[in-house]
Design brief:
The chain is an all-alpha fold. The chain contains 11 helices and no strands.
């Protein structure tokens, strides 16, 4: 029976059904964020949320049964662990002051979509495995920023002391340009100088 249940829980139809439930959960949470909709249809939305939570519990119970007698194998998968924690946390007793935590948990249930769709799961797993390499990319970017900040300080300090007065200010200005945060202001100041472009 466990083998048949495992085949059932891993079937495309089962996964597509719960993808739809997760999407519906996201829609319900989104609608509940509008005060006017929440006031008028709050009872319906909360009833839908309870049904959705019940279906999530049903899904996890089926998966746990399919892993018997080696139930601990279910928790070896990080995504299964994430699903279990998010769904279980929704049953914790929250008082009126902790309603924001409950809403956050309801929003996090939408993240389960990542663990359900194989393509998204592959992308996230690849990103997680590449985190150590991202650290070296960060070091390389810092070296480049540092070199160009030094050059910017030497070359543009007199023309634009507002943005290139010192090394740390130059680093901040370069970060501003890299993120496209009002970068044209720095460009025109470099072209016309502080005296002729808004600074005196």
């Amino acid at each position: 029976m466990q083998k048949q249940l495992k085949i059932f829980t891993e079937s495309k139809q089962f996964q597509m059904f719960f993808i739809g439930i997760i999407l519906l959960s996201g829609v319900v949470v989104g609608l509940d964020s509008y005060p006017e909709i929440s006031e008028e249809y709050g009872t319906i939305l909360h009833s839908l949320d309870s049904i959705i939570l019940g279906l999530f519990v049903f899904e996890i119970v089926l998966k746990l049964i399919s892993f018997t007698p080696r139930v601990h194998d279910f928790f070896k998968d990080g995504w299964n662990m994430f699903d279990f924690i998010i769904v279980s946390a929704c049953f914790l007793p929250f008082d009126g002051q902790s309603v924001i935590v409950l809403r956050l948990l309801r929003v996090l249930r939408v993240v389960r979509l990542v663990g359900t769709i194989q393509e998204l799961k592959l992308i996230v797993n690849t990103l997680l495995k590449s985190i150590p390499s991202l650290g070296y990319i960060g070091v390389l970017l810092f070296i480049l920023f540092y070199i160009y900040a030094c050059l910017g300080t030497f070359l543009f300090r007199e023309n634009d002391p507002i943005h290139f007065e010192s090394l740390h200010i130059s680093l901040l200005s370069l970060f501003r340009v890299a993120t496209l945060e009002d970068w044209t202001d720095i460009m025109y100041t470099a072209i016309y100088g502080c005296q002729n472009y808004g600074y005196s």
